[in-house]
């Protein structure tokens, strides 16, 4: 089996086990048997058991296989990527500091700051980084890895929204209706920036700069 097919298969297994274990019926059954903390431990171990070899295979076969596209790395492309990647880091850092009500065990459903941009800031930030890595990297292993990550995020986040709506009802519905899935769909960038502390933006820029220097 080629490395790109191995990567796609592992993404399928990773996503499938995540969605299956987090579905309402399955999760309730296993939490009843194991308890909340043990279930989370098993859930995490299964994820690591798949995610570690997935990354090992990809980084062992970086930029390999057939090339599906080749985009010239012009100055314009670089600046577009800097802008999008910088935005992604703002979403990631702000999403880590102010977790979304769409995540497990987060009860605060107020819509402020980065949550005005998307109800999934952390994972949408990772999605933007994945999309930007696809643009200049058209090799089969890169497409399988970053394309697989994008597919997993989109399907997984949709499933997460539906699970939260079923589990938390009206409490989550108000948060769901006031936010958007894809970033910037509600056009509240200015209020989001005003409500985001300057130190979060500075930390995001520092993280993006550090990642660029180490890349």
Keywords:
2 domains, mainly alpha, about 220 residues
What is the gist of this entry?
The protein has two domains: 1-61; 67-214, no CATH class. It contains nine helices and no strands.
Write up this protein.
With 215 residues, the protein is mainly alpha-helical. The chain has two domains: 1-61; 67-214, no CATH class. The protein contains nine helices and no strands. The longest helix has 29 residues, at 140-168.
Q: What's the structural blueprint in terms of helices and strands?
A:
Layout: H1 3-22, H2 24-34, H3 36-60, H4 75-97, H5 121-134, H6 140-168, H7 170-178, H8 189-195, H9 198-214
Helix pairs in contact: 1-3, 1-6, 2-3, 4-5, 4-9, 5-6, 6-7
3D shape: globular
Largest sheet, strands/sense/barrel: none
| Percentage of residues in DSSP E strands | under 5%
Compute the gyration radius: what is it? 19 Å
Averaging pLDDT over every residue, what do you get? Answer: 90
Spatial gap, N to C terminus: 29 Å
Number of helices: 9
Summing up helix and strand content along with how strands pair, one would put the structural category as mainly alpha
Uncertain ranges = none
Order of helix and strand elements from N to C terminus:
HHHHHHHHH
Domain count, please report it. 2
Total strand segments: 0
**Overall helicity:** over 70%
């Amino acid at each position: 089996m080629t490395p790109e097919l191995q990567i796609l298969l592992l993404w399928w297994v990773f996503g499938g086990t995540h969605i299956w274990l987090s579905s309402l019926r399955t999760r309730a059954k296993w939490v009843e048997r194991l308890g909340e903390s043990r279930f989370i431990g098993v859930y995490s171990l299964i994820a690591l058991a798949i995610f570690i070899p997935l990354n090992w295979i990809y980084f062992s076969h970086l930029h390999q296989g057939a090339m599906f596209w080749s985009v010239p790395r012009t100055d314009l492309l670089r600046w577009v990527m800097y802008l999008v990647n910088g935005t992604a880091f703002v979403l990631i850092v702000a999403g880590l500091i102010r977790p979304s009500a769409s995540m497990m065990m987060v009860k605060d459903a107020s819509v402020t700051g980065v949550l005005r941009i998307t109800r999934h800031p952390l994972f949408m930030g990772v999605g933007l980084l994945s999309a930007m890595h696809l643009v200049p990297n058209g090799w089969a292993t890169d497409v399988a890895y970053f394309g697989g990550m994008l597919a997993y995020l989109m399907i997984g986040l949709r499933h997460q929204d539906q699970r939260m709506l079923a589990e938390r009802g009206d409490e989550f519905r108000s948060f769901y209706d006031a936010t958007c899935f894809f970033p910037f769909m509600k056009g509240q960038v200015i209020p989001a920036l005003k409500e985001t502390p300057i130190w979060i933006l500075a930390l995001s820029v520092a993280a993006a700069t550090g990642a660029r220097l180490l890349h």
